[in-house]
Amino acid sequence: MLIEARPVTDPEVAVLVTAQQRELRAADGGLDGQVTVTHDDIRYLVVVDAGRVIACGGIQALSADTGELKRMYVRPAHRGRGVARQLLAALEELAFRQGHTTLCLETGSYLPAAIGLYRSCGYRPIPVYGEYVDNPYSVCFAKRLPVAA
Fold it and tell me: Which residues form the N-acetyltransferase domain (predicted)?
């Protein structure tokens, strides 16, 4: 397995992000409307296994100190193998290299596996923020990133 950076315009990133958004719409009953594909300012990492992109996630800067985890997704056939945990660690390293001291995220209350992953990786609940404030299904988490010695 290889984790590598890909541009926001990469077609394989677009395929995974679209799949992630469709899965989310199905899980929340379609309450959030149309599929959102990408933001130009997200820095993406992908997981490649046997030449195929099987997972993605990105970091978007909210401020100089704070990054937001975006679009974490693992293809269903590859779940339960530690792929998301490895990708999350790589995304945390990317956020740290970008100068962020805190990484935050939003997920849905209807996604217990995602919540369990984030909690087990040291993320703690925070108040709902930004564009998520009016979404009754949003739950938000944050983690303080290690400081270089």
Answer: 3-146
